[in-house]
Design goal:
homodimer; DNA-binding; Arc Repressor Mutant, subunit A
Chain lengths: ~150, ~150
DNA sequence: TATATTTGTATCGCGAACGATATAAATAAT
DNA sequence: ATTATTTATATCGTTCGCGATACAAATATA
């Protein structure tokens, strides 16, 4: 065979593995506060802008609502946020952080730094990260556009 | 807040999203043959070297056996591979491709090329890919070493 | 040889992801 | 105003991913 099926030639496998391993690096820091990594992503979205409908959160995270809805329900059960029907549009569910949800921001203050330093290495430095971000953003936009077209 | 929690500054979120979107790009090509992306990864491992114990497959994919075992059982149920107790070590389960499993390689011949071209864009070209691979490999090795140390 | 430890795999439970589908509310078309 | 379509969210079923745990076979130790 000509190497097209060699694992070592696969971009997706690298992304998949790197994603899993960084998520694992977050795990001890987040589980300490009863959070998962996707829940932490939801928090970052709501810390940026509170009181958003489910759809806006899903779009920001590029996830489907059938992934986000159960995620939000679990966070609601933990007392991190509330979900209330929209007033001007009764189909929407507006998601708002509770005091506990806001408070987590302070408690997690050191997490980005901790994970960031764990990832630093030969080729991942403050100088090279922007280039990496650019490539990943290109991949994401490329595939996202293609998905919307089809 | 100082931007440390901004989604746009997060490496992990980009890896997580890029990984999901590429996996989605594989989906129509693989589901046509009754496969998922992780199952495709297992196939690539076994096409490279048939007749491996569960542990070797898991290590190659950097997954735990409690992820791989059910995955292999589903593939066995589909007639893609067989699992038989090792002869020299009765604890091992040796995984072997069936004729169907081997045959899938021919049927999926065009998949790498199709996904590859879907990802090609401004900053992802045959010239830039090696650099991206290097950075991702560094991240993976860095986190993998750290994990084994702790 | 008997006992302890390590190793390879599997089971269990939970939280994602996501395709397919359903439902109600809002909007557009007739 | 009725009917049709779109939109926002939710439900269901299947497959991962993984921490915790179990268990038997192999190896090391006493």
């Amino acid at each position: 065979m000509d190497g097209r099926f060699k694992l070592d030639n696969q971009l997706c496998f690298r992304l998949y593995t790197a994603s899993r391993l960084i998520t694992q690096a977050y795990h001890p820091l987040l589980s300490e506060h009863g959070l998962t990594y996707p829940q932490y992503l939801v928090l970052m979205v709501l810390w940026e802008k509170d009181a958003q409908p489910v759809n806006d959160i899903a779009k920001r995270l590029m996830l489907e609502t059938n992934t986000v809805t159960p995620l939000l329900k679990r966070m609601e059960a933990e007392g991190i946020l509330t979900r209330v029907k929209g007033e001007k549009d009764a189909r929407q569910m507006i998601v708002r952080l509770t005091r506990k949800g806001h408070g987590l921001q302070t408690k997690l203050m050191n997490v980005p730094e901790a994970v960031g330093s764990a990832v630093l290495c030969e080729s991942i430095t403050p100088e090279t990260v922007p280039g990496l971000f650019g490539m990943l953003d290109d991949i994401i936009n490329q595939l996202n556009d293609k998905h919307k077209t089809n």
